[in-house]
Amino acid sequence: MSELPSLSGKVAIVTVYIGARNQEKALSGISEMLKLSPLLEGFIHPLAMDLGNFKAVQKVARDFVAREERLDILVNNAAIMGAPTERDEYGISVCFGTNHLGTFLFTTELLPLLRKTELEHHGVRVVNVASSSHYFVPADVRFRSIDDFNSFGSPDDPKNTFIQYAFSKLANILFTKELQRRLNEQDISILALSLDPGSVATDGAGRFLGRDSWQFKANLSPSDGAITPLWAAAHPEPAADREKYAGAFVYPWGGLKEPSELAQSVELGRELWGTSERVLGNILK
Fold first, then answer.
1. Sign of the CA dihedral with 91 first, then 94, 96, and 97 last
2. Which terminus of the chain has a lower count of CB atoms within 10 Å, N or C?
3. How far apart are CA 71 and CA 65, in angstroms?
4. Which of these is catalytic: 17, 90, 135, 165?
C-alpha cells in the first residue's frame, strides 16, 4: 500500500473517525490501532453508532455535520450476517436494516458535508463495502416495500440466511450506483465506489461458517481484507480515471469486476432509493 498518498489534514469516517456499534468496541479498535501506530495518538476518535437504530444513526450523523468542517472519506463497512427471520421494532429484517437502510441513512445525512468538502478541497469519496454474494440473489427481487426488504425470511430454509445477506449487499451496490448517478446529475465530482474485500476472517464469518471450518481458515486476515477498501478510499487511480471508476464495483486488489445484471439496473436502483427514503421517513417523522 506504499502507493497510497498521505491523508494528513483529511477527515475520514473509519480511517480517522472509527465507527462501531458501541463506545466500548470503538475504543477497543482504537487501542489496537495505537499499539501498531502510536503516532496516531490524538488523530483517532470514536464514533459509536448502531446502524440498526435509525434514530440514533440520524442523530450521530447530524451531530457530526454540526461539529466538523469537512469529511473527505466515508467508508461504510459495517454489516451483520444475522438470521433472516429477525425483525426490528418496525418489522424490518435486522440484516437488511443494518446493512442497507442504516448505511443509506448515514450517508444521505452526511451528503451536505461531503458536498461542501468536495467544493472546497476536492477528492471526496464514498466507499460502500459490498460482497460477491450479491451474484446469488434471485432474478425476480424488488425493493417496493418492507415486505420486499423481508423477502428471504422463511425459517424453513437455512440458505435464506446467506441469501438475505446477499440481498443486502446487492442493495449496497445499487445504492452506490444510484448515488453516483445523482451526484453526476448535480455536477458534483464526489466518487462513489462499492467493493468486495474478498472472503475475510471476521467474527461474523466465524459465526456463520464455524471457526474450525476449512472455509473460514482459508479466508483473508482482517488486515489483508482491509487492503481493497483502503485502495478504493485513497488510491490516486480512481481519481485519475474518474469515468472508469465512478460508481464502479472494485475487486481485490484494486481491479474492477462487472456486478450482476440486477446490480446494474437503473430502475431497481431508483426503486430502492425511493422506498428507502419513504420507509425511513415514516420511522423518523
1. positive
2. C
3. 9
4. 165
Q: Is 198 left (phi over 0), alpha (psi -120 to 50) or beta?
A: left
Length of the chain: 285
Type of residue at 45: H
Q: Quick one: pLDDT at residue 219?
A: 64
pLDDT at 15: 40
Q: What is the pLDDT of residue 193?
A: 98
Q: What is the dihedral of CA 246, 247, 253, 257, to 10 degrees?
A: -120
Separation of alpha carbons 76 and 56, rounded Å: 16
Number of helices (H), then strands (E), in the chain: 13, 8
Contact between residue 145 and residue 275 where contact means Cβ atoms under 8 Å apart: yes
Which of the residues in the chain have pLDDT under 70? 1-2, 15, 17-22, 39, 42-43, 82-84, 153-158, 199-209, 214-220, 222
Its pTM stands at: 0.88
Q: Supply 259's cell numbers.
A: 456486478
Q: Where are the domains of the chain?
A: 54-284
Phi, psi (degrees; rounded to nearest 5) at 112: -60, -40
Q: Locate cell 446467506: which residue?
A: 162
The pLDDT score that the predictor gives to residue 6 is 86
Question: Under CATH, what is the fold of the domain 54-284?
Answer: Rossmann fold (3.40.50)
Q: What is the 3-state secondary structure (H, E, C) of 35-83?
A: HHCHHHCCCCEEEECCCCCHHHHHHHHHHHHHHCCCCCEEEECCCCCCC
Cis peptide before 253 (omega within 30 of 0): yes
Write down the pLDDT at residue 78: 87
| 187 backbone φψ class: left, alpha, beta (φ>0; ψ -120 to 50) | left
Q: What is the pLDDT of residue 85?
A: 72
Catalytic status, residue 245: no
